[in-house]
Amino acid sequence: MKLGLFALPVFLLSFNLLNAQPPSIQQMEQARAEFNEGIRAGLNEDFKKAEAFFSKAIEINPIFAEAFLYRGLSHIEQGDYTNALRDLTITIELDPAFSDQAHYFRGVARYWRSEYHQALDDLSVAIHMNPDYVAFFQRGKVYLSLENFQRALQDFEIALRLNPDFYEAYLYRGVTLYHLGETEMAARNMETGRGYLPDHKLVTHYQELISQPNSFAEKITSEHQTPRREINIADFFNRPDDVVITQEKPETQTSVNVQMTSEAESSQVLTEVNGNKEPRPAKETAKIESLQTGTYDHLLKGVIPAGFGVQVASYYNHHNLKELAKAYHEKYQTPVFIDISQVNSRKLFRLILGMFSERSEAEIYRDELRKADFPDSFLILFENL
């Protein structure tokens, strides 16, 4: 992204926001009403109309971070990535509570603008804040566009580890394996993906290449694919708490929390692979939640590690944590630990890689991780946890 393209407008808007009068309760309620209408329009896939409602909400309440976030999504749905970047950047500036989602979607927008290195930065931040399978998947696509096939394969592997029923990841893993010369494995992955995306352009193109080993493979970039919606408000976001969508039978109305990976998405997109219609066993999540304070390995067995490790992340949300620990164990071929402590009456989950008796060895490993996926990782002494 060229700095001059957005720096001045964002600066001017930030200046206006800092000097704006706080909205009154009445204005906040009016803005929320407009926002709710925008959500309704988005769920009906009328994204132009949704954009208009979100804009009205922002006009009434110019510090309404959630409205900027959703207007950014509406821009993405309409292929307006320039304005999407602007709105998502403002979201990050206004409210850190939406930072993981805004970085994720900004990374997606930058991917479609072919700004691959900036997209990597955004998606890596999103992964660090919320290690969700869709973020790993999108970052894998960015690495694929950069022809960094080994890193792409790692991200697709983690995405499938976090949710093995994610059929689109099989398709892209097949593409990556083809470029790494693993044609038989590529063919198996493409066959799995074809069962769910038979009309996807990658299926036809790569199955032809796999059947003709001496064919020349085109570079995979967004230009070689027919643009299609990667993000859908109805698929990737549930409704906020105070949005009530009118159904045919009013008594069936429901409301749920907003989160980047919704239960609606899981049930709609990630089912029926290998006959499995349960995308994520609830009992595994419950097991993590029930663990007491202490340190556990990637299989959730209680351990007492000694020496030094490298902390790469910490989360209050345990969602996906067991699967992520397993994925990192396979990716880095090193012990992975989950340390659980109580902070301000809440459980904090620390993800720690490696176990070293010598500080110098741990420092070398930390520096390697900083060059890879964890720029702000740091040493810990297990005895001090």
Mind sketching the topology for me?
Layout: H1 3-19, H2 25-43, H3 47-60, H4 65-77, H5 81-94, H6 99-112, H7 116-129, H8 133-145, H9 149-162, H10 167-179, H11 183-194, H12 201-211, H13 233-236, H14 263-269, H15 282-290, E1 294-297, E2 308-315, H16 321-332, E3 336-343, E4 346-356, H17 359-371, E5 378-381
Antiparallel strand pairs: 1-3, 2-4, 2-5, 3-4
Helix pairs in contact: 2-3, 3-4, 4-5, 4-6, 5-6, 6-7, 6-8, 7-8, 8-9, 9-10, 9-16, 10-11, 10-12, 11-12
What this model shows, in words?
By secondary structure, this protein is α+β, with helices and mostly antiparallel strands. It has two domains: 3-224, Tetratricopeptide repeat domain (Serine Threonine Protein Phosphatase 5, Tetratricopeptide repeat, Alpha Horseshoe), CATH 1.25.40.10; 285-384, Alpha-Beta Plaits (2-Layer Sandwich), CATH 3.30.70. The chain is 55% helix and 9% strand. It contains 17 helices and five strands. Strands 1-3-4-2-5 form a five-stranded antiparallel beta sheet. A hairpin with a 2-residue loop joins strand 3 (336-343) and strand 4. Helix 4 runs parallel beside helix 6 (99-112) and helix 5 (81-94) packs antiparallel against helix 6 (99-112). Residues 1-16, 219-230 and 236-286 have low confidence and may be disordered.
